[in-house]
């Protein structure tokens, strides 16, 4: 029997892992999938939640090429400055887990004993992370109702994911850290110019979060040079643009073998008051 870092989504009691079953004191039970994750999403409708397999596999294949490594390196640097042994790090909206897994492995290589957990509303995404790293505790769940105990997390990470400020504040310990990554206005501008006749800059998020103090901000800017149509297509398919683009505009990607485009990220670091 092992204590989980997740709580029961029905009664908020702590979950214990017994074999392949997560069980709370009120006997609510949740099966652990063969790949290792648990589904704690209360809405079990047949509709598919979150990113689909096409987007997830495109993102995984693109990220594995290292195009976003400068962002990963900066993110890891910030976390290393903040982390302590036995901390709990939650990736809220972990996706397929490229950032989560690489951060975990870097912390472990530096002999940090950190409990890393990841949630995402997409079952396909969580399954990919669970298969990638068995030591990260993973669950299908919404960032708007996280099955995580109040004031239990030392670091919460959100990389291009929706943010529910109330939930972030609830799960953070006092003086704990929330790290948010978002695209800046000109991120992937040249990719958009390739596809669309009229290009709109990205809208920046509201950076004021009540109850959290913005402690530091960083930008990571680079030009990436994509030398194959496969890499360009993967980049396009991992963005929301793919599902909002006409077939004729998608054809412009099929005809392109080389592309240089901007990558521009904002990283905000908050502390809970």
Automatic annotation (TrEMBL):
Domain of life the protein comes from: Bacteria
Residue ranges of domain 23S rRNA (guanine(745)-N(1))-methyltransferase N-terminal in the record: 6-47
InterPro entries assigned to the protein according to its UniProt record, in alphabetical order: Methyltranfer_dom, RlmA_N, rRNA_m1G-MeTrfase_A_prd, SAM-dependent_MTases_sf
EC number: 2.1.1.187
Keywords: Metal-binding, Methyltransferase, S-adenosyl-L-methionine, Transferase, Zinc
Transmembrane segments: none
Methyltransferase domain boundaries: 85-203
Residues at which Zn(2+) binds: 8, 11, 24, 28
MF-aspect GO terms: 23S rRNA (guanine(745)-N(1))-methyltransferase activity; metal ion binding
Top EC class for this record: transferase
Binding site for S-adenosyl-L-methionine: 68, 96-97, 187
Name under which the protein is recorded: Ribosomal RNA large subunit methyltransferase A
Organism, as annotated: Thermoclostridium stercorarium (strain ATCC 35414 / DSM 8532 / NCIMB 11754) (Clostridium stercorarium)
